[in-house]
């Protein structure tokens, strides 16, 4: 695993950054060469969950690389065959929809398109309040796409947010190992 090059793309589910970034660090500590990618929104937006400058600094210190945060910077991922796997965590409902429809107009969606052209795996960690609503059709579509895999996921607050699903980001490494074998880790839906 120490020679694996993994893209790690972060989308704007800001409430999960504190759960996702430790997984990026975990991969790095296991010897994975991690290439950080952030959607334009996650790279440039301050929220009640933290300042973008602080998140960006932490990510770059973990990966020892500059964050890919523009469409222009994401484009070479495919032609240069930069990655063995691309992890998108957290992956928002907006990004799920764009991926399901083949829209590549953000750093994350273009990185995905560029990476998939090489027949390499993409691992998605869902985080959306609408996963069991409008986003369900996009998750279902992506589950049927070649080379797309998912980190196991669960309802995060069934009482107050019955349509919300969040990946169990602690399973990122194990899910990545399976995706590199072109297999979906099971079970995919957990309690």
Architecture overview:
Helices cover 36% and strands 18% of the residues. With 191 residues, it is an alpha/beta fold. Strands 1, 2, 3, 4, 5, 6 and 7 form a seven-stranded mixed sheet that branches. It is globular, with a radius of gyration of 15 Å. The model has no long low-confidence stretch (mean pLDDT 96).
Low-confidence stretches: none
Q: Strand portion, in percent?
A: 15-25%
Average pLDDT works out at 96
Q: What's the number of extended β-strand segments?
A: 7
* Proportion of residues in helical segments: 25-40%
Let me know the largest β-sheet.
7 strands, mixed
List the helices and strands in order.
EHEHHHEHHEHEEEH
Distance between the termini: 29 Å
Q: What's the Cα radius of gyration?
A: 15 Å
Principal-axes shape call: globular
Structural class: alpha/beta
Total DSSP helices: 8
What features would you highlight for this structure?
single chain, 191 residues, alpha/beta, 7-stranded mixed sheet, globular, 8 helices
Task: Give a short summary of the structure.
With 191 residues, the chain is of the alpha/beta class. It has helices at 17-29, 40-44, 52-63, 71-74, 93-101, 107-116, 136-143, 172-179; strands at 5-10, 33-38, 85-91, 122-128, 148-150, 153-155, 165-167. Strands 1, 2, 3, 4, 5, 6 and 7 form a 7-stranded mixed β-sheet that branches.
